[in-house]
Design a protein that fits this description.
Number of strands: 4
Number of helices: 8
Order of helices and strands: HHEEHEHHHHEH
Distance between the termini: 66 Å
Oligomer: single chain
Largest sheet: 4 strands, antiparallel
Length: about 170
């Protein structure tokens, strides 16, 4: 009988110990967020002054940023043609944890596999599938993925001198 097969949620529950640790950490939440936001604003303002470094901007309507990652774009023309990967390694050598951000998901193999699948070909016309392939060329996304670098939020949790050291490394 169908009523025997009710879908039930999982019973993933936080342990009492983990909850206690979380509760203690939440008392610092606003302080930590404010510190990240303050250091990020300063770091972004200074990085904007460096030709070839373009920090990520946020919508003006945003009231708060989490800064899980501080992302920026890198233009190799301003750094003697050094690749993004070379630039990231140079920052890492200075103790700055920078690495490439995202890869172009619109180019993942699974997309073409799906478009070529029997199910998709049965549901969608060849013209529609071809149009999707054309629409899936995302030049701005590709450029962003090719030039993006990011630094983990931990770079924002130190002192102002730590942030100055990051600027000096750039």
């Amino acid at each position: 009988h169908p009523s025997h097969y009710k879908i039930r949620g999982t019973k993933y529950r936080i342990s009492d110990f983990a909850a206690a640790v979380l509760m203690a950490q939440l008392t610092r939440f606003d302080e930590l967020c404010a510190k990240r936001e303050k250091h990020a604003a300063y770091l972004k303002a200074e990085l904007k002054k460096i030709p070839g470094i373009m920090p990520q901007e946020y919508y003006p309507q945003s009231t708060r940023q989490t800064y899980l990652e501080l992302a920026f774009r890198y233009d190799s023309r301003h750094f003697s043609g050094a690749s993004r990967e070379q630039f990231a390694k140079a920052l890492q050598a200075e103790g700055i944890p920078a690495s490439p951000t995202y890869h172009p998901m619109n180019k993942e193999a699974f997309i073409e596999e799906a478009l070529n699948s029997r199910g998709y070909r049965r549901v969608f016309s060849k013209q529609r599938l071809d149009r999707y392939r054309e629409q899936n060329h995302l030049t701005h996304n590709d450029e962003l993925c090719a030039t993006g670098l990011g630094m983990d939020q931990h770079v924002l949790m130190g002192t102002k001198q730590d942030v100055d050291d990051i600027i000096e490394a750039f």
